[in-house]
Amino acid sequence: PVPDTKSPDCIEELAAAGIYVHLKKKVSDNINFGFPLPIALSKHLEFLENASKMPCSLDPLVPNYIVPLLCNTFSTTTDLFQAPMLALVESVGGSSSQAGTAAMPGVHVSAALPVQPLPMEILDS
Questions:
Q1: Cα–Cα distance, 80 to 70 (Å, whole number)
Q2: Helix (H) or strand (E) run with residue 27 in it
Q3: Angle, helices 42-52/66-73, rounded to nearest 10 degrees
Q4: Are 60 and 117 within 8 A, CB to CB?
C-alpha cells in the first residue's frame, strides 16, 4: 500500500523507490539497467511518478511530506525536480508574484518581507 504523506514515516517507506529512481537514472546514462523494479515497489514508484505530474505546494501549517518526497526522489531528474523545489522556495519566502516587500522610511526604499520557517519535521525529511 502507498503510505500516508501526512506522516513523516512516509519518507522512509518510500525511500527504496526513490533510490531505485536514482540508480536507474545513474546507470541508464552509462549502460543498460538490467534490474527490474521489485514487485513490492511498483505501487510506490507509480505513486511518486503520478505525484510528480500533479501541482504541488507546501503549507508550513499543514504537514504534508509530498514536496520533500519529490525533491528527494527526483533531484537528479531536472524536469521533475523544478516544481517541488519551486514549492519549497515559495513556502519559505513567498513567490515573486506576491507583494514581497514592505515600505521603509526614505525615498524608494523597501525591504523584503520576512521568510516563514518550515517545521523541523519537514526540514529533517
A1: 8
A2: helix 15-28
A3: 100
A4: yes
